[in-house]
Amino acid sequence: MSGIWSALTGSGSSKKESSPSTPAPEPTYTAPVPTAYETPTAPTTSSFLSDSLLLDPAALHPLAGLDKGLDYVSLADDLGFGTASGPVGQRSWSDDLCYGTGTTYLCALTLGGIWGLSEGLKKELPVASGKLRLNTVLNAVTRRGPFLGNSAGVIALVYNGIASTVGAVRGKHDAAGGILSGALAGMLFKSTRGVRPMLIAGGMTAGAAGVWQVVKGAYFVEED
């Protein structure tokens, strides 16, 4: 009965509420202890070039021969040499075509320019004027230079083509083949002007080819 009465009147709960409560324990804070660690470093050049990182050249491709020494280029003895002063291999027909035509064109262009300069300076003018003299000289240079350069360049182009063909047919390149090629080139160049200009041009180019053969034999001695 006392328990029921206490529940109805609430006397028991008031006693429990009035009783002092036990204080909760305060949390304790522990400072973290710093731990020692290594500072990260960036990779250097020496680390990349260390022996452990180097690749084996032979492992890249076994047939490449990268683990062997250098092979120096050796010139073949049967190809012939252009000069006796050094190991310069003989040029092919395409090299002779390009170098011969270009050299002949530039030399003839220079000679034509000198010819035009002399002609322009010697020409008499109706009025003594510096501008008129300069104009006359420029006209003469631009007329004679390209004319002589273009003509000689075409003849050299035809000469080298015929010389290569003659040499391939005969199996050798000598002075006779060069003179014959020069005569044929000159005759072909003037073939539209008639027989007489064709023979004159053939004789002139044959003589020039003969002079070139003498110069080449004296300064560009070919080895056997």
TrEMBL record:
Principal location class: membrane
Biological-process GO terms, alphabetical: protein import into mitochondrial matrix
Name the UniProt record assigns to this protein: Tim17-domain-containing protein
A Pfam cross-reference name: Tim17
InterPro entries named in the record: Tim23-like (IPR045238)
GO molecular function: protein transmembrane transporter activity
PANTHER family: SD19278P (PTHR15371:SF0), TIM23 (PTHR15371)
Residue ranges of coiled coil: none
Region of interest (Disordered), ranges: 1-43
Keywords of this entry: Membrane, Transmembrane, Transmembrane helix
Subcellular location: Membrane
GO cellular component: TIM23 mitochondrial import inner membrane translocase complex
